[in-house]
Fold:
Amino acid sequence: MPDTINTQAILDIFKYVGTFIIGGIVFLIKEKYTNRKSIFTKRTWGQRLAYSLQSQDWGNIQILYNGQTSNNLHIISAEIINTSHNDFARLMFEFSVPVGCMIYRHQGQLLYDDLTKDLSLEKDFNDKFEDVRTRHLIAFEGKQPINNSLQNEINFVTRHRRFDIPLIKGKTKAIFHFLVEDFEDNPYLNISILEPGIKVITYQDETERKEVKKKWTEYGGLIVFLVFVYPIYKYSNSVSSAIWLMIINLFFASFVSLGLYYFSLWVKKIL
Structure:
């Protein structure tokens, strides 16, 4: 191995890389507290209640909901948690299902300490919902055709729900349930909070977090380790120094990959 550059050159490389990483972390922490956002987590799950079927082998299975023919019926639930320590008043949570789905019933509850508070639809949305339902009923009972404008309004109020949240305290949660009919057997729930300064992210349980962290440290550490293998081989002035630097590189790569993992978490919270 060439001896034109001694081990100090390798240490200088580590120093410059470490300075860059530390500088990036300091900048990110500064941005985090300058542009601070409160994080709300969301989690959804569902259960199929019944489905219609037309089969030569099993026959025809028909579903009736309130006396009307229906297709696949699902219960879709959502949990939203205010992970911050901040209290928020007068928030609005909006939920929607895909085209081809229809929300029949809804329920929302706010949970904190040992108290449970039932949540109501946001007033403007509820007024619109009742107005559209009344006009639809009049047209249906009078056997009148439904124009495009009314049909668009029907599609909107049957696929959306907006809840008024009078107050959600820090470290508390709200739970919602929806009875949904779908035609393609693939319903899901879109969730948004219409408030500046709040970011909604998907909940990640402990098992998922450990798995992601493991991948970051394994693959990231391998990449960082390989990046420094060639400079160590080329610039080390002896075999013993190369061995020691490889050992240092191994620990350094693990440290950097772990730092990059937490760096990525900070970035997600800031953006």
About this structure: The chain has two domains: 7-35+206-270, 40-196. The two ends are 46 Å apart (CA to CA). Residues 38 and 198 are 5 Å apart (CA to CA). The chain has a mean pLDDT of 79.
